[in-house]
Amino acid sequence: MSATALDLRGVFTALVTPFTKDGAAVDTKSLEKLIDFQLGAGVQGFVACGSTGEAATLTPQEYVQVVRSVRERTKGVCACIAGISVSSTRLAIDTARAAEELGCDGILLAAPPYNKPSQAGLIEHVRAIADSVDLPLIAYNIPGRSGVGFTAATLGTLSKEKLIVGVKESSGSVDFMADTIRAVDPWCQVLSGEDSLVLAALAYGGTGVVSASANAMPKEFVELTTSFFDGRIEDARRAQLSMLPRIRSLFVESNPVPVKTVLALQGVIAEPTVRLPLVELAPASLKLVRSEFSL
Questions:
Q1: Mean pLDDT of the chain, nearest integer
Q2: Contact call for residues 262 and 295 (beta carbons, < 8 A)
């Protein structure tokens, strides 16, 4: 892995992947419009093909198409990080090499889903990928989707061995976030993966957020982090608290179904289409997000 620095301070939007109405193809025009919407709000970077990007439903060709589109739109402007959340270490290496060839700035690497490896297995998984590419790795702790999480001790080991440069912490536990920040080396940056806990992460010494909700609310998340870094803590507190009802509405059903619906209603993307096994929002959920976002 390269020692190249990757600045993870601020807001990194975990981009949705817009699809055509029938779900048969990626809607690249909507993707470009979404990226421009985010850049206009001042976000610091993007994660392409993460959980929010429905990466598990993309073909290998579509994965490359999406990452290339994001990289081309952001090159020289802000960071482009490719998400990898596959069960096979060999496939993860191949995917990481593709991301490197496309010019990405880093990789967001989830614990392999379904396999439920031990902590020793997680370390070797990360090591194998770090040995295969010259890109900074960010460990993605999301046990609710992966089935197994990185322990704080494991994240500490990965940082001390310089196998990772950052952590996206999505366990939902403030205690675990604090334990992670204590465990990793000081130069290893920890970002909130929980949109309702951004202020807590920053207060503990985190550097920012990888956010699904920022797809629909980029300015609000930029205001939150900017206020905190500028020392305007009360403004940051107000920003976080004011967003909570909208954030919670965006997770009333599985992400990214609600946020894609909001983006389509906002006119940022053409269609709210998700791919099976996800389905469109139920009427009650649609009513909730319409109400929270005044749409």
A1: 97
A2: yes
Query: Is a pLDDT exceeding 70 seen at residue 1?
Result: no
| SS3 labels along 237-278 | HHHHHHHHHHHHHCCCCCCCHHHHHHHHHHCCCCCCCCCCCC
How far is 82 from 141, CA to CA, in rounded Å? 15
Query: H-type helices in 75-151, by residue range?
Result: 89-101, 119-130, 143-146
Q: In the chain, what are the domain boundaries?
A: 10-218
Q: State yes or no: is 168 an active-site residue.
A: yes
57, 62, 146 from 89: Cα distances, Å: 18, 20, 14
Sole residue written with tokens 């985190």: 206
Residue 120 and residue 147 in contact, taking contact as beta carbons nearer than 8 Å? no
Burial bucket for residue 263 (CB in 10 Å: 0-12, 13-18, 19+): buried
Catalytic annotation, pick one of 75, 116, 168, 219 = 168
Tokens 């998984």 locate to 125
Residue 5: band (very low, low, confident or very high) from pLDDT cuts 50, 70, 90: confident
Tens digits of residue pLDDT in 149-192 = 999 999 999 999 999 999 999 999 999 999 999 999 999 999 99
Residue with tokens 């334990």: 179
Whether residue 160 lies in the annotated active site = no
In which residue are the tokens 């996800």 written?
Answer: 278
Q: Which pLDDT value is given to residue 4?
A: 55
CATH no., domain 10-218: 3.20.20.70
